[in-house]
Design goal:
Elements: E1 17-19, E2 23-26, E3 34-38, H1 43-58, H2 63-71, H3 74-77, H4 81-98, H5 108-119, H6 123-142, H7 168-177, H8 180-192, H9 196-200, E4 211-215, E5 222-226, H10 229-239, H11 263-280, H12 292-300, H13 305-312, H14 317-323
Antiparallel strand pairs: 1-2, 2-3, 4-5
Helix pairs in contact: 2-4, 4-6, 5-6, 7-11, 8-10, 8-12, 13-14
Length: 336
């Protein structure tokens, strides 16, 4: 029997549904919370969403239902937008294989068989999809929804760390053929040792008197990247990006409508720049990614590995070492 609500206005809400900060939340008896819809949604929409969630919970327990519940959880909504997008992509590969199975019937040997078949096409993607599946099971296990995690103990494929170091000539060639937004993003990534997601989400409010404030989305490390003449020039370039009449953007790199660029939208412009560079400079090699620009920045830094770690914001020196790709010049015997 459900007791009376503290707020009489909430008596019209479905059982075990409460007002969160921005959304109505359903708190099932087994624990956890499921986001239903925004607080400004009309009651019929709320009840329909509530019925939909309960209908799925009443179905035979399947991996598809578990993954759907994971995607509706408050845990998932707190993840970075790019991470959410990657998880959705991973699920589209996994659900045709495991979707109809009872989660507790999935065994380590099933995961291994999937990994081996998927690895024949892409070992890296097989690793990513296994990590996603393991994350779903870990979330579900903590909430009493599954008996265990079958991904535990299943080895990933060995991944060879990238050692591609972009040369100055290669960097300059792509820069010369790129659109303004790509030029700005390249320079900020290189000078500030910043990941693509941190560059694209950079806002005007982060431009401080001392430098550019960046809180790394991945590590949560907070730093102010001190101004240099080259960095000031990049920001000056961003001020000239076109905007539609009457539009003001809060993003440093923005579309004409003021919105930020999505990862896919920016990557399209990045690919165009590399293709144009390949055509104009056939003697150069452009088999590098945008993320390799950060590695070029770390490699070009002067100083010890410890000093580079401090500037890059990595948690450990081993992480910094994976980005420091410049081959060291060492003395020969007798010439130390």
């Amino acid at each position: 029997m459900v007791g009376k609500r503290r707020n009489p206005a909430d008596n019209a809400l479905p059982p075990r549904v409460y007002r969160g900060r921005k959304n109505y939340e359903f708190h099932p008896p087994g624990g956890g919370s499921i986001l239903l819809c925004s607080l400004d949604s009309p009651l019929p929409v709320l009840w329909a969403k509530y019925a939909q969630v309960n209908a799925r919970k009443a179905d035979k327990k399947t991996m598809a239902a578990l993954v759907a519940e994971f995607f509706e959880s408050s845990y998932f909504t707190r993840l970075a937008a790019d991470t959410q997008k990657d998880y959705k992509k991973n699920s589209r590969r996994l659900l045709p294989v495991f979707g109809k199975m009872d989660p507790d019937n999935v065994k380590p040997q099933h995961i291994r068989k999937y990994m081996d078949k998927r690895g024949a096409t892409s070992e890296v993607q097989a690793n990513r999809e296994k990590s996603f599946l393991s994350g779903v099971y870990r979330w579900a296990y903590e909430r009493g929804k599954v008996a265990g995690n079958p991904c535990t103990g299943v080895k990933k494929f060995m991944e060879i760390p990238r050692d591609r170091l972009i040369t100055d000539a290669e960097y300059n060639a792509v820069y010369a053929e790129a659109r303004e937004i790509v030029k700005i993003a390249m320079e900020i990534s290189y000078l500030c040792l910043a990941r693509q997601s941190d560059v694209l989400s950079l806002r005007e409010a982060q431009l401080l008197e001392e430098g550019i404030f960046i809180c790394q989305n991945k590590t949560k490390k907070k730093q102010i990247k001190a101004w240099s003449d080259r960095l000031r020039l990049v920001i000056a370039m961003s001020r000239a990006l076109p905007l539609k009449p009457g539009i003001v953007s809060t993003f440093v790199i923005h579309q004409p409508n003021g919105n930020r660029y999505t990862r896919d939208g920016f990557n399209s412009a990045w690919r165009d720049a590399k293709l144009a560079a390949e055509e104009k400079f056939p003697d150069l090699n452009f088999d590098f990614t945008f993320h390799d620009i950060k590695a070029k920045g770390v490699s070009d830094l002067e100083g010890t590995l410890s000093e580079k770690q401090s500037i890059s914001g990595h948690k450990t020196q081993s992480q910094t070492a994976t980005y420091d790709r410049k081959v060291q010049i060492v003395p020969v015997v007798g010439n130390q």
